[in-house]
Here is the input.
Amino acid sequence: MFFSLKKRKNIINESLLDLRKYTPSGLENVKIINAAIVILPENPSGELMEAYANVKIKNTSLTLNLPDDKKIVIFNGSSVLGSENVVPDAIHISNGITVLKYFQADTPVEIISNGIMVYGKNSKTNILSQNGLCAEAPFEIASARIYPRDIGIDSIFIENLPDNTVVTAGHNIVIYNDVSLQLLKSKNIYFTAGKLIKCDYSILGYIQTVATAGDKIQVNE
Here is the structure.
């Protein structure tokens, strides 16, 4: 007697797995799904969900049920979002550092963020999921300076920044001792860092009101 065993395949190490076009029979061939985000149809059939229930799901932090025509836009690394690259009626997935500039949006910008996300006052946003640091600047963001790792900031750097700017670093921000409280107050600047923000004791209290750090804000050694 001969047996025909249909080999089931694995789907592994996907940051985003869109199953909206999968059929129940297609999903029956899947053994393991290892994806950070899984997208299912808005109204999946019972047969599809039965097949999905038989799949081993690993490391999935978010599952979404979306219409077939809902667009997905992915940004990796350091990204500044604004009127020039935001897609209407789409979900924007950011993997890294993202700053959303202010612009007149008809509907809220839908965002899934994995990393650092900064948006400003009066921005229409809908954060569907946040894995990491999320901060709101107290002004309408006009520009951004993004640094993937560390940045040291002196008075000349501050003097040359336009108003309503966000300065973001993936790791640490060090504000040197020549940056005065008077200079900082003359500008609209918001600081975000994935780990530490360091500054002189004379401006520590002010920085604590215009900055967000993933770890802490502390005095320069």
Q: What stands out?
A: Confidence is low (pLDDT under 50) at residues 1-5. Residues 46-53 form the longest helix (8 residues).
